[in-house]
Amino acid sequence: MAIGPHKLEYEVLEGWEQLPEDWSFVEVAGVAVDSQDRVYVFNRGAHPVIVFDKEGKFLNAWGEGVFSSAHGIFIDHNDHVWCADNFDHTVRKFTTDGALLMTLGEVNQPADTGFVLGETPVQHAGGPFNMVTNVAVTRSGDLFIADGYGNARVHHFTGDGELVASWGGPGSAEGQFNLPHGIAVDRSGRVFVADRENSRIQIFSPPGDYLDSWDWVNRPDDLFLDEQENLYIAELGWTFGQAPGSLHFKFMEMPRIGHDPV
Prior knowledge:
- By secondary structure, the protein is mostly beta strands.
- The protein has 2 domains: 1-107, Neuraminidase; 110-239, 6 Propeller (Neuraminidase), CATH 2.120.10.
- 0% of the residues lie in helices and 37% in strands.
- It is built from no helices and 20 strands.
- It has strands at residues 2-3, 8-9, 28-33, 39-43, 49-52, 58-62, 70-75, 81-85, 90-94, 100-104, 132-137, 143-147, 153-157, 163-167, 180-185, 191-195, 200-204, 210-214, 220-225, 231-235.
- It is globular.
- The two termini are 19 Å apart.
- Residues 244-249 and 257-262 have low confidence and may be disordered.
């Protein structure tokens, strides 16, 4: 399948994953690949992290009893596995075998943002975390974390887990967010944030200064930067009407004037 003017070729390999008998992902929240080309599938089934080789052969599984809700996964250049759990409000650091190394956030202790799921939207920015969504790690080891369904912030941590800075707040102005859902950092340190329900990618300097915004995307959900600095954007597309229980954030319900048809 050739996509776009550069004719990038993609082929879907159906049935690639060789799951053990009677296993299921239920829902796949994220996928990451380590330096050995092992593929980690972060999912909401009974085995939250399922590991395959690049040919789809099952290798390992771990994380049972650890997570409330799988959401985002990132593997850094030292093959540490970072997992965001949006229901227990934490980001955890693991070895590739699933040994827990660090937990950021307090389990089941959401930050105060005035948010109540299904009742009250985010009223004001808060500290880490409230239904945290995703994490990106720089080559130097710093973390940038998107937060999230119950907050409207990006948090910058050192590799040792010390909070450096936070920025953002609820809204649609420059530097504000309506569900920061995905995040990536390029080699120059620019921070790309998938501001999902504002239907845009916002770009910031490492300290959080607003640089630019791309508003031609359709509800961007996740971001990935490859070794060549190509940015891949997963988009949900437009929704029509409010989904039940979505009071905590406002869905972008239709394209702005100037958007291409979906």
